TrEMBL record:
NCBIfam families: PGA_TPR_OMP (TIGR03939), PRK10049.1 (NF007468). The gene is pgaA. This is Poly-beta-1,6 N-acetyl-D-glucosamine export porin PgaA. GO terms for molecular function: poly-beta-1,6-N-acetyl-D-glucosamine transmembrane transporter activity. It comes from the Bacteria. Gene3D superfamilies: Tetratricopeptide repeat domain. Pfam families: PgaA_barrel (PF21197). InterPro entries: PGA_export_porin_PgaA, PgaA_barrel, TPR-like_helical_dom_sf. Residues 523-816 form the PgaA membrane beta barrel domain. Transmembrane segments: none annotated.
Length: 816
């Protein structure tokens, strides 16, 4: 708000009296009387603000008559009142050589020198005036204020305090206030203006100065209340009302406040803006204030989470050609990011290069996430570089040799960690995050970041322990609860996940991160449809036959009692063999159980093959011993892995399997399995497998993995109607690449490449080469669709003859 008029007229001293000069030598008595009458009239006019009359009179009079020192003093003083500082300096310099001037002439010249920022002659003249009139309080006040202007801070403050100590009157307190103002100590200024108002509550000038000091320090509500006692124009009163509501907006926009407090303050500000709009809509001259109120109101809308309204109001203001300041555009950019419209946010930033960089860590993370989620990795890296360029690890406070932690450096490191995390550079991210968390154990945010890294690496129990340690610092931290909810979801702690999510949503219902958590829980509570299958294009191997077709579908209901889900499904397989076509149909239903650290399914089925229906059953389960070890197994009557050719010939198999998985992190894991099948033709099959994954290389949009595999089997009979080697062994290694072609928030379109080879051995046959090739694409959308298709080709030996197989595989997971 602009300062009230009259407050900054620092150079007028109301108690300075203009004396009447008399001409001592006059030729004629009547002329003397007439001259005095004219002179007195000019003096009265000067006192009423008409300075030109006396100045012109003296200019002409001195050309014909000598002037007394009092008349010269009048001339200098009135010129000072008129603001003619150069004339004052010229007149004083001219006449002080001709006569001894009174103190008031020196004081007027001192004021003009001060206005011209010529501190040394001004101070010298103040000293001279004080010597001539030591009891004049105004001269001492002028001298102290000039000391403050000349930045002789210590002396000015010492003299002002001495003045107040001698007599704590309103003028003396205002002098001390002015010294503090010149030193930039606005709160000390406010204290002394408050004391001055207490000393002279009826003085309008003192009241106006206090209102200005309150406004300067953004203590807007008390300033507005005091304005009821001041004579203000409608424009000034509207400005005070706007400042008061803007104070609420600033409080609501402060991240350190609790969520409920911020929402309450934001809603209170919005209500007051509505009242102001209703009152000012018909006031003349209020258009500019209404425009300012609409701009300030963007902050209240943003703090309350009304991001769509922020965007709508911004578009309305832009359509009306209203200039929006950079600090308000920051809210608009944030609203666009919250609405996942990153392109429009970046367009505003490009159109307004004067926009200040984000100062709050929350805003910086928001921009980084938007760039990353929209696939703009190079822009994200450039953004981090801009935020961390030339930012030192420590800073030095003025006058202190002790280095202090530099918060912008820490924020930059956190941004760099988030970039590494979201670009799959998890080993580098872990080294950085672990170092920061262990070297600053009292920083809860760093420990939460480290826990999110552990979760991203597939170590939810380690993440849970880290979050539990962080909980001791601030149990109700909203970021802590969000991360705990995600970890609980990975650990299948469904009740805990619901409680945490409920609390987060209740506290920050419109926050983007909270809405994402709510969406994850909503997806968890949806029904699920799983579909997968293969379609042979060209195949002549004895396992699947030619023109083979396999597909399976299962639908899972929403969770019941947290851990349970009912499901039902069907499976179909068909293929052509030398002896004819083979078909297999399966309909099943069962229940799934998902407690912490475990999973189990029980299913009953009807299997139709070889012209008959036979009941089947399946039990599958696994148990997590730790983040690294998982044990699993299953029993199945009429196994789904029974070769179709065996079913075509009326042979079924029961199967038992067990396996163990070792998982280091997302870059390395291995699984060893053993299975035994009992065929109805009395054949006994044993199968062994070892498979793994080694991450070789990663970039923001590309990962490259090595997939080694080793498998072996043994059969008790080798004369079955299906492919049934007595002994066989195969070893393969493949490179699998996953390339993200498009990413925009929850929509990801990627392509997959696979190429590999190996060798296969079969008892009584020569070792043959194995070749593998594959290409596919996958789409993920809105967390409810995950579907992919892949074209596969392989060539491997069967009974000593290398057979090729070309097929299309597809899978989809749909939530509804």
């Amino acid at each position: 708000m602009d300062l009230l008029p009259g407050i900054n007229k620092l150079f007028l001293y109301s108690r300075t009296k203009l004396s009447f000069s008399l001409t001592f030598i006059l030729l004629f008595p009547l002329m003397v009387q007439g001259t005095e009458s004219v002179y007195e009239e000019r003096v009265l006019q000067a006192r009423n603000g008409n300075y030109a009359a006396l100045l012109d009179y003296l200019q002409h009079y001195q050309q014909q008559h000598p002037l007394s020192n009092e008349q010269v003093a009048d001339w200098i003083q009135v010129a000072s009142w008129a603001g003619h500082d150069d004339d004052v300096v010229r007149l004083w310099s001219l006449w002080q050589r001709k006569m001894a001037l009174p103190a008031r002439a020196d004081a007027a010249a001192a004021r003009s020198y001060r206005n011209l920022k010529r501190w040394a002659p001004s101070l010298a003249l103040w000293d001279r005036a004080r010597r001539l009139a030591p009891e004049n309080d105004d001269y001492r006040i002028g001298w102290i204020k000039t000391l403050a202007d000349a930045r002789r801070d210590d002396q000015a403050l010492r003299e002002a305090r001495r003045l107040v100590a001698a007599q704590p009157s309103a003028p003396h307190l205002q002098t001390l206030s002015y010294v503090y103002q010149r030193q930039g100590k606005s709160w000390d200024q406010l204290l002394n203006d408050t004391r001055a108002y207490s000393a002279a509550p009826g003085d309008q000038a003192v009241l106006n100065r206090l209102i200005n000091a309150l406004t300067l320090n953004r203590v807007s509500d008390p300033a507005l209340r005091l304005s009821d006692k001041a004579a203000l124009s409608p424009e000034q009163r509207r400005a005070l009302e706007l400042d008061a509501v803007a104070g609420l907006v600033r409080l609501a926009d402060t991240p350190s406040r609790s969520e409920q407090t911020r929402f309450t303050l934001a809603q209170k500000a919005l209500d007051r803006y509505d009242a102001l709009f209703a009152r000012w809509r018909h006031e003349p001259g209020a258009d500019a204030d209404i425009a300012r109120a609409r701009i300030d109101r963007l902050g209240a809308l943003h703090a309350h989470g009304y991001y769509h309204d922020v965007i709508s109001e911004y578009q309305s203001l832009s359509a009306q050609k209203t200039a929006i300041p950079p600090w308000a555009l920051r809210w608009v950019v944030s609203a666009y990011l919250a609405e996942k419209k990153v392109d429009r946010a970046l367009a505003i930033i490009r159109q307004h290069p004067e926009l200040p960089p984000e100062t709050e860590e929350e805003d910086q993370n928001e921009m980084l996430y938007a760039l990353m989620d929209s696939g703009q990795y190079s822009s994200a890296r450039h953004y981090i570089g801009r935020m961390t360029h030339n930012v030192p690890y420590t800073r030095y406070d003025f006058g202190s040799p002790t280095p202090q932690p530099n918060d912008p450096w820490l924020v930059g490191q956190s941004l760099w960690f988030q970039y590494l995390l979201m670009t799959h550079a998890l080993p580098e991210a872990e080294r950085l995050s672990r170092h920061m968390a262990t070297t600053a154990p009292g920083n809860q945010g760093l420990r939460i970041d480290y826990a999110s890294l552990l979760q991203a690496r597939g170590l939810p129990r380690a993440a849970e322990r880290e979050l539990k340690a962080a909980e001791s610092l601030e149990p109700s931290n909203i970021e802590l609860e969000r991360q705990q909810a995600y970890v609980a979801m990975d650990l299948q702690e469904w009740r805990q996940m619901d409680l945490l999510t409920d609390d987060v949503i209740a506290r920050t219902p419109l926050d983007l991160a909270s809405r994402q958590l709510a969406r994850a829980r909503e997806v968890h509570h949806m029904s699920e449809l799983r579909i997968n299958g293969t379609q042979g294009i060209h195949s002549d191997n004895p396992v699947s036959g030619s023109h083979d077709q396999n597909w399976e579908a299962a639908i899972y209901g929403p969770p019941m009692a947290d851990n349970w889900r009912l499901f039902g499904g069907t499976r179909f397989a068909a293929g052509r063999f030398d002896e004819g076509k083979g078909f297999s149909r399966n309909v099943s239903g069962g229940v799934e159980w998902r407690p912490r650290n475990a999973w189990a399914e029980l299913a009953l089925s009807n299997n139709n093959f070889h012209g008959a229906n036979k009941p089947g059953a399946r039990v599958s389960a696994w148990y997590d011993v730790s983040d690294s070890w998982r044990l699993g197994g299953g029993l199945e009557r009429i196994s789904a892995s029974t070769p179709l050719r065996a079913l075509r010939n009326g042979v079924s198999a029961n199967r038992a399997e067990t396996w163990v998985r070792w998982y280091q992190n997302e870059r390395r894991e291995y699984r060893f399995g053993f299975a035994a099948s009992d065929f109805s033709d009395h054949n006994r099959r044993q199968e062994y497998s070892l498979e793994g994954k080694e991450r070789i290389w990663q970039a923001p949009t590309l990962t490259l993995d090595l997939i080694p595999g080793l498998s072996a089997s043994a059969n008790s009979h080798d004369d079955a109607a299906y492919y049934n080697p007595k002994r066989d062994l195969s070893a393969t290694a493949a490179l699998a690449a996953d390339h993200v072609m498009y990413r925009r928030y929850d929509t990801v379109w990627s392509q997959q490449f696979m190429a590999g080879g190996g060798a296969g051995w079969q008892k009584s046959e020569d070792t043959g080469a194995i070749a593998l090739l594959g290409y596919g694409q996958r789409i993920q959308w809105n967390n409810v669709v995950d579907a992919g298709v892949m074209l596969n080709w392989d060539k491997r030996p069967y009974d000593g003859k290398r057979e090729s197989n070309l097929s299309v595989a597809f899978d989809a997971n749909l939530r509804f």
